[in-house]
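Progress note, project year one: complex with zinc ion.
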Amino acid sequence: MLPRRRADQVRGYRDGVNELTRRLREAATRARADGLDAILVTPGPDLRYLAGYDAVPLERLTCLVVPSEGEPVMVVPALERAAAAESEAGRSGMPLRSWQETEDPYALVAALLPGAECVGLDEHMAARQVLRLRDAMPGTRQMLASRTLGPMRMVKSPAEIASLMAAGAAIDRVHAAVASILSPGRTEREVGRDIADLIIAEGHARVDFVIVASGPNAASPHHEVSDRVLAPGDSIVVDIGGTMPDGYCSDETRTYALGDPGAEFLAAYDVLQQAQAAATAAVRPGVTCASLDATARQILHDAGLGELFIHRLGHGIGLDTHEEPYLVEGNDLPLAAGMAFSIEPGFYLEGRFGARIEDIVVCGESAAEVVNHRPRELVVVA
Ligand code: ZN
Ligand code: ZN
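Model obtained:
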């Protein structure tokens, strides 16, 4: 009998391989239905999803070829063969076709797909690789593979949901420490540096973004950090996220205040919190992305804040921080159990202040399963 720990590792590995096999089969079936002869995937989230391979995107071509008929093959530079063999796909026996420095890897891919009329390319593929593939396969039309892979990646498996929950718990622990590092006299940049360290210390492999937007800077939703010095009365939007070692992303926003931010801000914040809670409460299968956006927007609109909510309600999240589904007016996609996305309404008043509350949620069978658990009230730092 294997020691317990080793047996768990083997079981975890087998589950991973089974999931990859299922994904590769589904990708091929969907590609066929979408009129694609193959899907071509270079390093990035799609490669991680389909091959369990966290390869660094370099100029040398690594390309997973998933034909709609036949077995997938991974084309890899000879010097990266060992790394590819160690990936989940490699260990499960996926054929690796390695190429030497003097070979043309694009011709290799073309040779694997004789007569292909149309191929789907992963949307992170570098333009230099897209164009070299086009030259190597002059009779083949190129499309984005996201039409095929997006709907697959959008609905998370139980293992993926567990990964998102772990990422959410990690970023919750960072937010739990934020109040203690905000104080008048410090700059956004200093605070941001501390937060980046905490993101890693709490278990992420990588810091993806750190927004510390204080006072009037918070009126810009994607402000990052600046040398602005925090002052009493500031409200501060802290929107942070990273990627965990297994590739899944975190993303959570809370708004803080140094002392009293003023009655006008507090009244608006109260409405924002209601809007965020109402949208979360409305999550269930069948509700459209657009109507969820409208639920939050209506509440802000009724309080006269509609004009200040200048972005969509949220975005899908998984191996990418921003992926489908997008919660935006006009998107009539119905939610389905297993979809994971942010609910992040905000208000932004140029030159004055801004605020946002953001949680990741998973659509469950009848309600939202909320991934982030920090209190959503304004966090007032005395
Ligand atoms: Zn965010
Ligand atoms: Zn977000």
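The chain has a mean pLDDT of 95.
Residues 155-381 form a domain with the Creatine Amidinohydrolase fold (CATH 3.90.230.10).
No further modelling is planned for this target in the current period.
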